[in-house]
Amino acid sequence: MSKVSSWALLLAVAMWLGGVDRVVYAQNSSTAIRVLNASGVEGISGVVLLINPGDARSSQALVTNAQGEAMAHGLHCEICVISALDPHGLFADQTTEFASSNPSFRLVMQTRPLIDTVGDPKAASLELVIHGTNGEPILRHDVAIRPLVMAMGNNRISILKTDQTGRLSIQLSAGDYVVAVLNEGGPSEARLKVATSKEQCSIGTAACIVAPPSSRYTKPVTLQLASAGLP
Question: DSSP assignment of 142-203, as one string?
């Protein structure tokens, strides 16, 4: 075999290997992302994923499905920065890195810590009965109660568990709140307003409780949850 033929053969092999590398890289350019709760087993639905592959023009925004899964395509980055944001406020935001060459990636989000409001002189004692989207009481289930609009000075979140009748007790200051539950069908929630006078209750879909801080509010209030959509 002549030198020319040998070089031609080597060039052809190199081009073929390069083509194989490109095919393999293309096949690995999709990454299955699964977002889990602190147990590392249950997926979290409705989580917004913001992925930056190093080029802002190629950034992607995804939302996890009912199983807590989302698929990212064409990232082509050795270090991708991903931020997971829970629009319903049940889980703390999480930011980390992963490589797009990995076919799958798992991200665990921690439940926001319980904030104890007992002792707040402006808080009123409330008893809530939580009903699910099917109208039945939600028994022995974690419920998150947070301000409707969260800010640096107003970001308290309480995670409480209903009892065997679907009831829970909490102390809340006057304001607008969201009561939320996560289940297999996704998040469901209801609006709640705590007012110190009847005049502060506006007409709307939110349940309004008149509970002056100086009084002990003991009458149970029933909240009907509805399926929550992304804002």
Answer: EEEEEESS-BTTB---EEEE--TTSEEEEEE-SEEEEEEEEETTEEEEEEEEEESSGGG--S
